[in-house]
Amino acid sequence: MKKFLAALLALALLLGTTACDSAESTSGESAGEESASEAATASGTEEEPTTLVYGSGDYTRINPAMDEHGEINLLLFNGLTGHDGDNAVVPALAKSWDFDEETCTYTFHLEEDVRWHDGEPFTAEDVQFTIEAIMDPENGSENAPNFEDVEEITVIDDHTISFRLSAPNVAFLDYMTMAILPKHLLEGEDMQTADFFRSPIGTGPYKLASWDEGQAITLEKNADYFRGEPNIDTIVFKIVPDDNAKALQLRAGELDLALLTPKDAATFADEEGFTCYDMETADYRGILFNFQNEYWQENRDLIPAVCYAIDREAIIDAVLLGQGMAAYGPLQRNIYNYEDVEHYDYDPEKARAVLEAAGCVRGEDGFYTRNGEAVGFVISVGAGDQVRIDMAQIVAQQLCEIGMDVTVNIPAQVDWSGQMAYLIGWGSPFDADDHTYKVFGTDKGANYSGYSNADVDRYLTEARESDDPAVRAEAYANFQKALAADPAFAFICYIDANYVADASITGIDADTVMGHHGVGIFWNVAEWTID
Fold first, then answer.
1. How many H helices and E strands in the chain?
2. What is the mean pLDDT of each successive set of 10 residues along the chain, which is 531 residues long?
3. Which helix H or strand E contains 295, and what residues bound it?
């Protein structure tokens, strides 16, 4: 049982914060002690406020228009559409929509009684402003490729807006889950650096109460939420960048919910007071090769050797405790997956054969050289992600065993243009266009490797510009064949999302397939309760 003091701190935090007041912040100590699972009661009170503390990565800004990732976005913002527990598109800020096949135009009919967290009315002008900001190349949004086919946006009235596309795009309704931003607060502001993104105002079920940099982001429920008032009063995103620390703080009662490593999650399996959610994802891991780096410009033909040298099953067993699936491509959890491509199954002899066929010579020390230069590279991994770090270290060892001199680097900040390789993660449970077109397409917003392949570009375009499932299936099959023949990544595995929660929390949908970074668990957060 947690200390009674913690309940008083939680209550004080709730009553003492005001919406969008980033100057008032919660200390890391108090954020850690507040817990939704507390059963403290005070005489003379009808019902104690409920607080859920989530173990979160750090945020430097909350900017869903420019940045794709961020679990917190689902709590603060809405799109015109949303996703349900089956990852199907459902109404959100738009209560309905029509599609005119002749003009390739979507018309959205918006909810009429929605207000921003500051009380201003939400209108179609906000929608137009947000999508045009993302499309503007001056803003440098990694989401811009999602809206490349938008040719015209028309505000018909305050609650009706239309988008005319250059070609059919079945993924468009998925992309309209994009968080809509308030025009009245961002018009004329820099979409990368505006103060708004440190004190965001949305239409979502929760609104910002305080932000203590590097410690916690505290949200309070939006009592005027257009879909009904959420059940949980306060949600604290406590900043815990280190994976190992999350497990310790969860057990100590400082967290109520966290995404853990498989090894840490396994320790809670039979522990009273906790519920484990081992959730399937479309999230894969692989080695991204930086084709902007001179090394890969000269040694691109050695990449198949890297792919053959990876013992994926050994990594799944050692790092994921068997909770995962060997990866050979980006669509294995999608209806358009095509299996009949090169899987690069573990074959160290074939890896060495690729190196030797390319003119590499193995020295007495067991390592290959090419034209007098060592054959090998450095894999960079983001600090704090223990699963990726473990994977990278095992991959490096496996590559050393076949004669490539490979090491691991854990920089404090990722240098996309300067590094040689990176332990990347991508994957989407939604339409096949998501996390393919913008990740592998030449010069697209999320193509951090600088990868370019004319065939890949052509097939991805064919797939996104057709609403015929047969045409799309053929195009995606050809895309996967082209990608396997000229790999952008050395795919490793798909991972599960191992969430552990205080058993008092109910409403979490254990069957939803999670997205990249395990994002998606908060899709129905307004319905969660704490017993």
1. 16, 24
2. 37 35 34 42 62 96 89 96 96 98 97 97 98 96 94 98 94 97 97 97 98 97 97 98 93 97 94 96 97 96 98 97 96 97 98 98 96 96 92 98 98 90 96 96 94 98 94 98 98 97 97 92 97 88
3. helix 294-299
